[in-house]
Amino acid sequence: PEERRVVVTERIFGENLLDFSYTKYPHLDRDQKIKLFTRFGRLALLDLVIGNGDRFFRISKRRQEYSFENAAEANLGNVMLVLRSGGEAPIVYAIDNAMDQDLVNDPSVQAKYHEFLARIYSNPSLMIDELSSNMTACMKVLVLPECLIGSSLQNRQKIKECLASFNQDLDELGRVAFAE
């Protein structure tokens, strides 16, 4: 018989990152934005360690070699954000924390992934540069105006402006903050 799996999680009264990027993000001040991007960087490091390449970046396995996948889309639905009152940075919730089951069950895959991590961690500046540049590129792919097809012209223009600001902040604030 087919195995049934159940996932239980707390209910989060927030928005995924894509929605947040054009509804609440424009109202954050610079310090809140930097703290938010720093939290994303910390979560990305955890994802890297557990082999979850389905949130801020993608990990490719070609010819049994692991690497960051360029020009892939981040899964911004796997991050929920709740805006706090009092001017604090948003709370970041990681959802759908899946990892490649081969990393748990297959020793040869574990060894290859360990080699990938060892290569990255052996040079911290390389790790920071590769991870932050990949995160920036992947997060921008989904945060583009193509998601606005059903909106009114006025709403589309406003959302485009918000997304452009988010993309600019990814370059100017995100890359540095991801490395914190």
Concise overview:
This protein has about 180 residues and is mainly alpha-helical.
Provide the β-strand percentage band. 5-15%
The amount of helix comes to: 40-55%
- The number of distinct helices, counting runs of at least 4 residues, comes to 6
Shape annotation: globular
Mean pLDDT: 83
Structural class: mainly alpha
Count of beta strands: 5
- Terminus-to-terminus distance: 47 Å
> Taking Cα atoms only, what radius of gyration do you get, to the nearest Å?
17 Å
Largest sheet: 3 strands, antiparallel
Question: pLDDT under 50 segments (min length 5)?
Answer: none
Strand order of the largest sheet: 1-4-5
Order of helices and strands: EHHEEEEHHHH
